[in-house]
Design brief:
single chain; 16% strand; globular; binds iron/sulfur cluster
Length: 100
């Protein structure tokens, strides 16, 4: 069996409710903290799905759509900017668990 690259593996992740704009995501980030007091912006390089990015002006932004719910940012952020909430699966947005 062929060994898949990380990008290929990430491409196999499936999601629920990603197309609906009014669905509450499982993770929310207070970007105002990222762009004011955060001295290191570490989540912009530890997130395997590149959900945290820095633009040309040095501003951090976050997009939840590609999140694989690995939990890294929840532990990496020491500034209190990341909050997690698992809403009702029928109403939430996130990874569809295929293998349990
Ligand atoms: S470490 Fe926390 S505050 Fe800093 S950029 Fe990442 S999410 Fe934002
Ligand atoms: S849970 Fe993992 S994939 Fe999702 S935003 Fe945080 S670090 Fe990125």
């Amino acid at each position: 069996m062929k060994n898949l690259t990380l990008t290929e593996r990430l491409g196999l992740v499936s999601y629920r409710n990603q197309a609906k704009s009014n669905i509450k995501p499982h993770i929310q980030v207070d970007i105002s903290i990222c762009n004011s007091v955060c001295p290191h912006k570490c989540t912009t390089y530890v997130c395997p799905a590149n959900c945290y990015k820095i633009d040309d002006e040095g501003q951090v932004f976050f997009q939840v759509e590609d999140c694989i719910e690995c939990g890294t940012c929840m532990y990496a952020c020491d500034q209190g900017a990341v909050s997690w909430n698992y809403p009702d699966p029928e109403e939430g947005r996130g990874v569809t668990w295929n293998f349990g």
